[in-house]
Write a structure and sequence with these properties.
Blueprint (H helix, E strand, L loop, with lengths): L16 H21 L3 E2 L5 E5 L5 E2 L6 H6 L5 E12 L5 E12 L7 E3 L2 E3 L10 E8 L5 E8 L6 E5 L5 E5 L5 E2 H7 L4 H7 L3 H11 L4 H11 L1
Antiparallel strand pairs: 1-2, 2-4, 3-4, 4-5, 6-7, 8-9, 9-10, 10-11, 11-12
Helix pairs in contact: 3-6
Amino acid sequence: MSLPTTSPAFVLPDLVEIQRASFRWFLEEGLIEELDSFSPITDYTGKLELHFLGKDFKLKRPKYDVDEAKRRDSTYAVQMYVPTRLINKETGEIKEQEVFIGDLPLMTDRGTFIINGAERVIVNQIVRSPGVYYKSETDKNGRRAYNASLIPNRGAWLKFETDKNDLVWVRIDKTRKLSAQVLLKALGLSDGEIFDALRHPEYFQKTIEKEGQFGEEEALMELYRKL
């Protein structure tokens, strides 16, 4: 006697396919978009421009396959080369060269990466949307302190904050705090420009009275030491 065959009540989908599809998109489109986003790069004199020809990038064959990379405690990756074009705007001279950008880890069929022989996965992270976030707090003595976080689309986060003495400080990417005067002066702003832009300039005035004046060059050196 044969038992009737029934179709399974539930078919488990390929839960890793979304990761593989995302990485395929990155290789086919996203990588080109990233290269194009910061091309061209101009030197400080404005005479030289470096262009990345992202759509013509090349990936060399991996040195090791997945199993060999694990055995050797190596990374399963490919070497990435991008054609570049250097333009001298003053003379009109153009030079083209294929440049090695770096090693690009490859995703395995399991949706993982092999980094130094260890299998790793990407974990999505929820981050704040770019913008400016304000916050005020009251300490146990009833004093109010304020802070403002500046979150860009790309680059370092800035957090301005006041302390109990009404001095203004700034943190760059959550590093130790430094005087807001130092950062603003290093950016080339004068006292007049800073005061005109502030709704409550008295905070900045107290900071100057406490620390003394910084010139632009002094501020740049102080910023370099702090970072």
